[in-house]
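Incident review: delayed structure delivery

Summary: a single-chain prediction request sat in the queue longer than the usual turnaround. Root cause was a stuck worker, restarted by the on-call engineer. No data loss occurred. The affected request and its eventual output are reproduced below so the record is complete for anyone auditing the incident later.

Affected input:
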Amino acid sequence: LHHLKRIQGAGNVHDADVLVNFSHFKGHGSSGAGAAIKNIAMGCTSYRTRGEIHQLEKLDSIGKAFQEGMVDAVRAVLRNKRGKALHINYVMDIQPTCDCAPWSDLPIAPDIGILISDDIVAVEHASLKMVDEAPIVPGSVAEKLGLKPGDNKWLKIHGKDPYVQVEAAEKAGLGSKQYEIVEV
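Output delivered after worker restart:
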């Protein structure tokens, strides 16, 4: 970690009493998948910091440096939000590409639901695992690639392993990969 020397976070996020991080879980060409971690790294930092994170893509072809850079940013943004952040992943309409793309496609898996946690690592890990275990939507890019339940879908679709960001975030002390699903 520590790819970024300086992180410019959004002042209004820093000054807020609490943070509610509502993210759409989807694929992403630079990190395999993106949701809570990517939402804070790219949505709560300056244009300069986002650019520096994207520059990390040049360091490797597997997205490791990019994902670790996102974790650097998240650690900085959440520094004053211990016990004051809630992360909500909308794991529905699971698009193969980022919402920033000017198109959409068939979802790669059926709707899972909405996952909520005060632990960004746990909610991200649970989201990834549940999508990986889910069946494939017929006609989707996942079906065209021959993916099955249990496959690391995002690694196969984008060539980037999104579990890198979860591991990095856990090592950075942002939370734990351990989770318990409680349906309501």
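Verification: The longest strand covers residues 85-91.
Action items: add queue-age alerting; document worker restart procedure.
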